[in-house]
Amino acid sequence: xxxxxxxxVLLSLFIACTLIGCxxxxxxxxxxxxxxxxxxxxxVVTNVKxxxxxxxxxxxxxDKGVILESASENTKGYKNIGIFYYSPTAxxxxxxxxxxxxxxxxxxxxxxxxxxISSSVRCLMEVVMVETTQYxxxxxxxxxxxxxxxxxxxxxxxxxxxxTYIISVPELDDGTLNDAEAADYHACKDYMQTVRDTLTFxxxxxxxxxxxxxxxxxxxxxxxxSVFSEKKLTxxxxxxxxxxxxxxxxxxxxxxxxxxxxxxxxxxxxxxINGENDTQHIELAQTIAQKAxxxxxxxxxxxxxxxxxxxxxxxxxxxxxxxxxxxxxxPIIGANVKGCKEFVENYFAGQ
Length: 351
Fold this sequence. Notes:
This protein has helices at residues 4-15, 17-20, 59-64, 88-98, 107-118, 132-140, 179-198, 244-259, 279-291, 306-309, 337-349; strands spanning 34-38, 43-48, 53-58, 66-68, 72-73, 79-86, 121-131, 155-160, 163-168, 200-201, 214-216, 222-224, 233-239, 264-270, 298-299, 317-322, 332-333.
């Protein structure tokens, strides 16, 4: 059960758009605002800046199925990052699920895949960061480290930059892993002690700004992050060509963009385009935009957007960006043009 909520998100990234809207399709496993490099001893060193942590994971174990996932929040609402073992069975099931026609994706089918995948993915480590004042208040009130983590057991790893870090290396059963997968899983689990011993703190960097980027829009025009400086507020709509709700709201967005005043603009990011060479999705995005009479810019997310895009859990998601490139307010997940308009109105009313 402990892996099931994790896999609910994971599976929805691939196939749940027909049931609950449209969730993002994973393009790569890249932690937010992270940088990775391979050291001389064939170890991948990853700085996860939003979590203030540097992970060192040997390529040998990555090859076995160890994945350092994107920085996110756990189900208790605390900032975390996790390491998971993805078995070959889980990978095959995800690929199989992603190939199913949308018309065949009933609730029963989705839940069947969820059950199978959740028992073939195992959590190896969870690290949670809690503001130290909040942590101390919780402990003073009779709390314990496990109150902040999703997995147990848990203990304090250390304090850094005003945060208390709590680590959990759970003792999970083998689920439905076959003998070979179980052997790899246990080897990876044993290796987590080495990962813990080499875990180091780095400066915590906020993820509340848009990334610096230079890319092209779906019509081939070059666009860079200076585009935000042109208006006091930019509405950024992240959508996908596979996403029904995204496509349905596109004509309304197109009309709104034409009616916006001089201080605000609308920009789209087509989340399922995989770079400038992905002509299939670029042409599909062009067709969708043309049918909806879209005149606003729609960007192709390249590697400059990798950290930003890895934090998208649902399509469409709409962000609001000020003239400096900083994110303001809370993102709106789902098709909600009315809510976006209300935010813009309130934003300027408060200035």
